[in-house]
């Protein structure tokens, strides 16, 4: 039998709506929010990279020992595209998204959970073959 | 009527299997691969942040004007968890993933496309309300 694919982590795709435009346009606030989200999710922060667009918008990614959290903001629409991908049972990407929702005073939004499969064997390999 | 939600971009979740372990463990190669993937996808690279794990593994994110491309590698399994999120009609996140597949000599893998919804109005708002 082929191995059952493992699950290496959970990846949450979060559409944040109705956030505070001033906060979504504040690069330092966005970076601090990512730090707090990483901490609350149980992850270890390695570094943060960010960029401020003109006339508006911030994009930032937190690199984690357990993968990453990203945010791309459209302050003029109160919208941010977020994804939080964390590996390991000790971390919770939904908690990271919840922290961002609270910090940006988002009124609503949607989350989609994608299970990351991790290593698997090829469907083309002979029976019993392992990676 | 409520507005039909827009689509702000396309987000490809890519499970890369059977990649070259040495290349997946080479931090400089991984960063160069992200640069090439960004260029091939039609995106504008802002910066790259990366980290090398011991005894193995690389994590790296390319920040783009059009969002980001990330890669987290498990060389010992020939596996990498990739996501490529790009905004705008001039960019193609699937092309970015295809570039990475070729550069790491990946034999197989799976891609999942998530359409990022972008700004929308609340389902709780009265008819005709706009953000």
State the main characteristics.
131 residues, alpha+beta, 3 helices, homodimer, six-stranded antiparallel β-sheet
Question: How is the secondary structure organized here?
Answer:
2 copies of one chain form a homodimer.
Chain A: E1 9-17, H1 21-24, H2 27-40, E2 45-52, E3 58-64, E4 67-74, E5 79-87, H3 93-103, E6 108-116
Antiparallel strand pairs in A: 1-5, 1-6, 2-3, 3-4, 4-5
Q: Based on CA inertia axes, which overall geometry of chain A fits?
A: globular
The largest beta-sheet of chain A arranges its strands as 2-3-4-5-1-6
What is the distance, rounded to the nearest whole angstrom, between the alpha carbons of the first and last residues of chain A?
13 Å
How much of the sequence lies in strands of chain A comes to 35-45%
Sequence of secondary-structure elements of chain A: EHHEEEEHE
Are there runs of chain A of 5+ residues with pLDDT below 50, and where? 124-131
Largest sheet of chain A: 6 strands, antiparallel
Using a beta-carbon cutoff below 8 angstroms, give the protein chain pair with the largest interface and the number of residues from each chain. A-B, 44 and 44 residues
Q: What share of the residues of chain A lie within helices?
A: 10-25%
Question: Mean pLDDT of chain A, as a whole number?
Answer: 90
SS element count, helices of chain A = 3
Taking all Cα atoms into account, the compactness measure Rg of chain A is: 17 Å
Number of strands of chain A: 6
| Quaternary organisation of the protein chains | homodimer
Determine the structural class of chain A based on helices, strands and strand pairing: alpha+beta
């Amino acid at each position: 039998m082929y191995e059952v694919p493992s699950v290496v982590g959970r990846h949450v795709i979060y559409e944040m709506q109705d956030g505070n435009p001033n906060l979504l346009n504040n690069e330092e606030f966005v970076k601090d929010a990512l730090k707090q989200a990483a901490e609350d999710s149980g992850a270890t922060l390695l570094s943060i990279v960010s960029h401020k667009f003109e006339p508006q918008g911030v994009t930032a990614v937190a690199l984690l020992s357990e993968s990453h959290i990203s945010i791309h903001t459209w302050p003029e629409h109160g919208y941010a595209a977020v994804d939080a991908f964390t590996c390991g049972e000790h971390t919770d990407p939904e908690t990271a998204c919840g922290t961002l929702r609270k910090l940006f005073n988002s009124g609503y939004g949607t989350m989609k959970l994608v299970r990351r499969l991790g290593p698997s064997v090829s469907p083309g390999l002979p029976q019993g073959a392992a990676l």
